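Hi F.,

I've been meaning to write this up properly since the lab meeting, where we talked about keeping a consistent format for the predictions we share between groups. The idea is simple: the sequence comes first, exactly as it goes in, then the structure tokens exactly as they come out, then a line or two of notes. No screenshots and no reformatting. I'm using this chain as the first example so we have something concrete to point to.
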Amino acid sequence: MEREPIGVVGVGWVGLVTAACFAELGHEVWARDIVPEKVDALGRGDVPIHEPGLPELVRKNAERLHFTIDMGDVLDRAELLFVCVDTPPTYSGDADLSRVDAVLGELGDSDKHALVMKSTVPVGTGRSIRRRRDGIGYVANPEFLKEGSAVEDFMHPDRVVVGAEDGSAGYADRVEALYSPLGAEVVRTDVASAEMIKLASNAFLATKISFINEIANVSEELGADVREVARGMGLDDRIGPKFLQAGVGFGGSCFPKDVQALKQLAGNSGYHFQLLTAVVEVNELQKRRTIGKLQKHLGSLAGKEIALLGVAFKPNTDDVREATSLVLAGRLAGEGANVRAYDPVAGSKATDMLAGARIVESALEAVDGADAVVLVTEWQEFRELDWTGQVKSRMRMPLVVDGRNFLDREALVGAGFTYEGIGR
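Output, unedited:
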């Protein structure tokens, strides 16, 4: 069966995953980006981001994936245009929709194309676009991909959300049909509700993280173990176990931005979203609690050698946006500590972002002569280190702050380490 050609506008992380996965489903995909070097690299099969399984998918479907800088190439070959451009926050906290507006401008007066909005946009964006461009085809189709498992998430989604008004119902039917081979439940709704589903989903997950971190902090004071608490909570099917892992706070490109965006939208409408204000505050304070844990054992941090293991905001990605490591490095430098950081993937990206820290080439180089090690990102490589041998012998003081409750506490304590976890 002949499959509909697809256009993708913006070939960042979301756009490239979308393009590659639709190509895997048998579609000819025309993907446009404005950066010539990126387009050339992708045309050669070189994927500029770290996402498991994505390079293989791009190379496997090279004949169906067409990368271009010319919007005309896309408009000539596809009617459904998946918009995957950045919508970063402005200084006011509102979303910068200039890239979305640029796509709209390039579309001109076409009446045969439809915008399929995958970019995260404020509630009301679709309504505004349709008001400015009467009759334009518009479908809200938010993405729910997780960095580190994006290909799997696309091919096996929990749900597919398709939002459209009456005038675009035909386009929405076509978008829904694209996902039919995946067998996922489709949520058909209006555009504003689809836009809200994306923001509300991420805000709720962020709330779960901040909540369990608050429970962790109380557990430390009362002698409970947050891991056992979370396990007992998660067995309740009304709660579930996901996103109940206490740690040093959330980061990345989605949760901080989307929580702030929803909070800003509420404020713009005259409503004070008090719960999200607390979620943001808890998360920022959680990132800084590590400093107190270090000071409890080391006193002043001036002149102390601190190793940060992990720079990316989570494992299996090279994304350092809003990463806890950025806050920790800055605070440690402010306390006068000497900081060495290592990440198996994201180190090179963070060279100019980790204030006062030196990026090194291996975990053992990071811990050499260290007064303390802080585990920031739970890369499997760090669990497999020879902690009781090579790591301990290289450290000046055997102090570990496990910011993800990832390491074997009993083994470390048994080997003479001083161990600090989160909520334990």
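Notes:
Residues 191-222 form the longest helix (32 residues).
The CA atoms of residues 210 and 281 lie 9 Å apart.

If this format works for you, I'll send the rest the same way.

G.
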